[in-house]
Batch of 2 targets.
Target 1
Amino acid sequence: MNNTDSRLTTDAARAAQVLRNGGLIGMPTETVYGLGADAGNAQAVARIFSAKRRPADHPLIVHIHRPEQIRQWARDVPTAAWQLAEAFWPGPLTMVLPRVPGVLDVVTGGLDTVALRVPSHPLALDLLARFGGGVAAPSANRHGRVSPTTAQHVRSEFGDAIDMLLDGGPCRVGIESTIVDFVDEGVRILRPGSITTQDLRRVTRRTVLDRADPTVRRPGAMTSHYAPRATVVLTTAEEALAALETSRRTGARAGLLSAYRPEHLPPDVPWLSLGAASEQQAQQLYALLRLADDLGLDVLVAVPPRDEGLGTALRDRLVRAAGLGDGRVFADCQPAAGKTR
Ligand code: TXA
Ligand code: MG
């Protein structure tokens, strides 16, 4: 696919027609780009799995246009879910709810729940309004790799495997939605995102569990996810130069990803500036992980932001990019958590 390819468009009506025909589209959302298909068409949804090379039992998020459509997909919807929909939709929040019988197994991975979200990107909303039904869409990256935050990222990864690419510019949020489900105690965060624990507590006035029960299937809970080709090494601001030196001694080409540039950074070490504000850090994170690969880095030494607010989600993504599994591993093994090794 090149720039003059007629499959690259900003026309939501054309993209809706592709969905109706059982096609596969790249679509913008405010979080990351999605790889979308008609959630009511099993063959169309199956194409998502083959294009992504995603294991068949990984459930997909169904994108809908309006909160009232929850009822077409889910049953026994708790009050807290309606409160969250009212407060945060359209927006970067996904809710896992008991599904109604008609929802396809290929969408839910055979689970008796379904994940729903109303995205806030204007082109996504336009597309969903025109299409009318639900659009199943995972992030538009190959399984385990870095999520796309521009149409170009999608094109470079999927090119001819998709029927249309809706270009909505760079994503405003830059990391995937917060995913929650509902348990007796209150709201449980399955994946942290830009809607924070505090946001969820403020709106629902319920307990918010931010460590999922280890027996529950966790989104992206395999050890390596959001991963560039370069090996990601997590460290603290204080230890960043030493970590770079360790890598460089082995002959590796190393770069640094951090909010601040250390004073004594060797001039031949590429510095990937994460930016100081956490919103900006989220917007840039995935593009910077891709840049590490474009620069041909073997090792990316990264200083994660603090574990608060949006920083929690950024740390989560970096921990997984480093192949360290979930955030608990990080808390236990990092000097950043106030320990020394
Ligand atoms: O921001 C986002 O959420 C983006 C945009 C495109 O909307 N989508 C996204 O999709 O990140 P994906 O497939 O990359 O991640 C969705 C996660 C998966 O890890 C999946 O396991 C989890 O949601 N998920 C989906 N349905 C679920 C369910 N019924 N129960 C538990 N987890 C579920
Ligand atoms: Mg994904």
Target 2
Amino acid sequence: MSLKKSRRFWNTLAFRLTLWYAGIFTVSSCIAFLLFYMLITSVIREGTDQELLSQVRQFSTILKARGLDAVESYVFLEAQAAGVKKVFFRLLYLSGYAFSSSNMSYWEDIGVRKRAIEQLLQGDSHVFDTVVLRDRQDQVRILYALIGPGVILQVGQSMENQSRIIEAFKRIFMTTMALLIGLAAGVGWFMARRAVSGVEAITRTAQSISGGTLGKRVPFKTQGDEIDQLAMTFNQMLDRIQALVTEIKEMSDNIAHDLKSPVTRIRGIAEVTLTHEKSIGEYGSMAASTIEECDRLLDMIDTMLMISKTESGVDQLPNGEIDLAGLIRGACELFEPAAEDKGVTLRYDVPDKRPFVGGNRMIQRMFSNLLDNAIKYTPPGGAVSVSLSENDKSDIAITVKDTGIGISPDDLPRIFDRFYRCDQSRSEPGIGLGLSLARAIARAHGGDITVTSRLHQGSIFTLTLPTRKSLSRSSLPA
Ligand code: ADP
């Protein structure tokens, strides 16, 4: 493994999680062992102490019943029976002088502790002591006790067996611990890998996306854990980004296409002017056509800028008081001749006055777009009707209903996108920006435009404007 790779490995979340897991496991096991060790040693010591005390009681009874000689011979016999390397007995006067004992060849290093004798003289019934002999690892537990008037018994017992048990316990613990820590590290590594594998999948997908493949998605299971939720959120974000990128791409394709046609026409006119000799009148009409094309281009660019500004709120909305009903009626009257020429009946049902606070020219443009579309996409013999009403919440609803070509369910969600035009309406003039602008203006006024439509039967565009933007009827000058 190269240095860079190994550094990356030590820094991985999986490695650190494993380390934490194994570390916590080791510390808690050591604490458990320590507690267990203390418990075992105290139980063993307690057992030894009880044994020594029961011997003291035995000696005391013998002394009382059969006298000092019997005790002396019992001392000898008892040490022989238990093993001279296991126990020893000493009989002492109150001065600490030993007047009798068992075979002490193995225990000659053990003396009499003055402090223990003093404690007995001060009234303690017995005194325990623990001694470690030089060159021997095992401890010796010693008990001093008064067994009769003027007679002290010093009894000692090797704790060799207990040490052996504790040593065995230590060995077993060390081996088990080594195995368990290895197992804990293995399990920890496995669990950590499982936990971070989802994050790695997301990283891989993000990397391949930054490499250019926006269509990739993170695979996820259906367990619904945190990683799955992260993956789902990440995928949703990618869906949204992909949709936006597609939208931007389509829009730029449309802009390029819509700009190309007038520019090509202008170029054609200029080419004809250069290559063919024309009369002054013809040159005049060519110049007029060029101006017309340029105006169309400028109109398109202006509309695009206006949509952007309205959507981003760069232009502060003019907050003048307007008569919405008068504005709608005026626009209908303006479009009446065009509708008549086309053979479309235009009806409008608008109250005398309806005050509203908003941008006069903007609202005019928004409504004109809707009315223009209704007449444009309604074949001769059809009808367009306009109405202004107030709904339950007193919001203003302006409806533009036509019996025209209608919009298919597939096109319906997209007609408000910039430059979007339905196939069946391509024979009519237009650039596909009217509805985008209309909706942007409606939303800038706190309202919206909705549409219902049936192909070949007609459409209903409803523009709602909130009352908080409108004024009471009385506030408008008559
Ligand atoms: P355009 O300049 O093409 O009219 P719009 O943004 O105003 O652009 O409208 C977008 C598209 O929505 C139109 O091209 C047309 O296909 C469809 N559309 C809008 N209004 C109507 C309507 N009243 N009836 C049928 N189709 C409509």
